[in-house]
Amino acid sequence: MAQTTATHPGRRWLLSGIALLAGCAVGLGFAPTNLWPLVPIGVAGFVVVALASSARVGLLRGYLFGLGFSFVAFRWLSILGLPVVAAMAVWLSVWYALVGLTVAALRRTPVWGFAGVAVWMGAEWIGARWPFGGFGWGRLAYTAADTPLDGLFPLISATGVSLVIVSSAFLLAWVIRGFIEGSHTWRALRPLAVSLTGALILVSALGGLWARSYDLPADGRSVTVAVIQGNVPGVGIEALGPRYTVENNHLAETIILAAQIRTGTVSQPDFVAWPENSTATDPFTDSTTAGIIKLALDLVQVPILVGAITDGPGPDERQTVGLWWTPDSGVTATYAKRNLVPFGEWVPFRSVLMKLVPELTYVGAQSIPGTTPGVLDVAAGGQPLRVGDLICFEVSYDTTVDEMLKGDAATGGGAQVVLVQTSNAMFTGSDQMAQQDRITRIRAMEARRDILVATTNSLAGLIDAHGHVVYQAQLRTSDAQVFTVPTSTALTPAIAYRTWFDLGSVLLPLLGGAAALAWHARRRRIR
Question: Which CATH superfamily hosts domain 222-491?
Answer without folding.
Answer: Carbon-nitrogen hydrolase (3.60.110.10)
